[in-house]
Amino acid sequence: MKKIVMFIAILLMSNVTSAKNIASVNGQNITQENLENFVNLLVNQGASDSKELREQIKEELINRQILLQEAEKNGVINNPIVKTEIQLAKESIIVRYFLTDFLKKNKITDDEIEKQYEKLKKDQSSKKEYKIRHILTENKDDAVYLIKKLNKDVSKFTEIAKETSKDESSRINGGLLGWSNTEEYVEEFANAVKNLTPGTISQNPIKTQFGWHIIKLDDTRNIEFPELNQVRPQIEEMLKQQILSNLQKELRSKSIIK
Predict the structure, then answer these.
(1) Residue 152 lies in domain
(2) How far is residue 101's CA from residue 95's CA, in Å, rounded to a whole number?
(3) Who's near 132: CB < 8 A, 6+ residues apart?
(4) pLDDT (0 to 100) of residue 19
């Protein structure tokens, strides 16, 4: 009998604790449960539970309650924009937690990551990087003149680039743009680079939105693909986005949209 009485007492004490008020603002109670919920939220986001954190949260809850009460007095809650933002925030939170839970139930496996890595590595194996220099001119005639001059002695490209190029960022380095793949450049420029062999220059000025270019290809090399451990987080994130994209497509296909 004593054990039963003690058990009931413990339950009652537990209920009192969960309903305990940690503060009151103009008669509006802030409960221990409010505090615990806030702590759990921050801990789930990476914070460490501590006495200092709890004190900060308590102060935040008090300050927030003060501002909420004042906002209510001023009728902010009835503002159409506020109502819209509240609804959007609510929907965003619900969707975010749904997607997070979905990913937890459909975890990316190591095997999937490795397969995706090998696929990306294979796709990149035929791609090259180019070491490029260029001279930028304001008009075509200047570019044509410099091409004729360089055809007599292409070794002077660096010198001429420093003297004449309008591209201030590369001019100081003799027109050097460094190693890159052609996807980083506008189409006209990229196509011209692909048609060159190391040591040669473009025989026609290349027009882009920046002006007229003379391009010199210094060298080429195969793209070095990073090790799996260097790109694992990026590949995992890529696969997660694919899963969520497929989920959205599937749900959309099942929905009646008019």
Answers:
(1) 127-222
(2) 10
(3) 176, 177, 178, 180, 193, 215, 216, 217, 218
(4) 60
